Amino acid sequence: MATRRLFLTAAAILGSGILGFLLGDRRSAPLTPPPKEISSAKRPLIGIASVNQETYIRAVRDHGGIPVILPNTDGSTAMIDDYLEELDGLIMPGGLDIPPSEYGEEPHPTVSILSDERYKFEKALIHSWIKNSEKPLLGICLGSQWINVASGGSLIQDIPSAVGGNHRNVNHDITLEPDSRLSGIFGSTGFEVNSSHHQAVKDLGEGLRVVAKSPDGVIEATETTDHDRFLIGVQWHPERLIETDKSQSKLFNAFIQAAKEHASKK
């Protein structure tokens, strides 16, 4: 077990470096190793599915976790059981759209479907993580939608045509349920978020509850009804907001802490 964990840790550090190299000029600052005062052995391993932006890597690294990039190469699902065993937490990041066939609908003209490789990999990963694991899960934008669809829910395929208004490339307020885990994390029942999505939860998946909405009624966050598990999906991008809104660090701090606590039970 220790040897496999060491291998994943080394792979995570190497993968982060390679991703930074591939992103080239899009980097705002060089990736650096974890601060020396924090022992790597005490840092939880956090998988990031299909990541293509280093903001997720920075968010995990800077809040006390070791980021592990989970490749969707060839759509292979061969290592998912290993990921479930070795990782301490999972982030499902943003991206294009889930095929509407997943929830029994034909695609709206505005839908931009995920690549086949990413779709196959993430579908298998999210289903396995939810059903076969009790480990922490954080879904961001598309990741939040994956949580709902994998739990048997459906999506509004296009907010402008179905609801009206725009949720892409804007900022707007949200209101949180006061008794939710999410509200407890932020110590608030409302704040402003960034928004870059055109889809959102329609029919709620099994075992989930709605915990945040925008002023137009669009669902902005869900979480599990299991009080013993950290499983949260948010439609905004907290990893992009951290530099200008430090309060968004609270979500990553809570997620990483939940992963640490789960890892300590091994």
Structure, explained:
The strands form 2 sheets. A 9-stranded mixed sheet has the order 2-1-3-4-11-10-9-6-7, sandwiched between helices. Strands 5-8 form a two-stranded antiparallel sheet. It has a single domain, classed as Rossmann fold. By secondary structure, the chain is of the alpha/beta class. The protein is 35% helix and 20% strand. The chain is globular and about 45 Å long. Mean pLDDT is 88; it is low at 13-40. It has helices spanning 2-23, 54-62, 80-86, 116-132, 142-150, 159-162, 181-186, 238-241, 249-263; strands at 45-49, 66-70, 89-92, 137-140, 155-156, 168-176, 190-196, 200-201, 208-213, 219-224, 231-234. It is built from 9 helices and 11 strands. A hairpin with a 5-residue loop joins strand 9 (208-213) and strand 10.
Count of separate structural domains: 1
Shape call: globular
Number of helices: 9
**Record field, number of beta strands:** 11
First and last CA, distance: 10 Å
What is the H/E order? Answer: HEHEHEHEHEHEHEEEEEHH
Fraction of residues in helices? 25-40%
Cross-sheet strand order for the largest sheet: 2-1-3-4-11-10-9-6-7
Query: What's the overall average pLDDT, rounded?
Result: 88
CATH topology: Rossmann fold
The low-confidence runs, each spanning 5 or more residues with pLDDT under 50, are 13-40
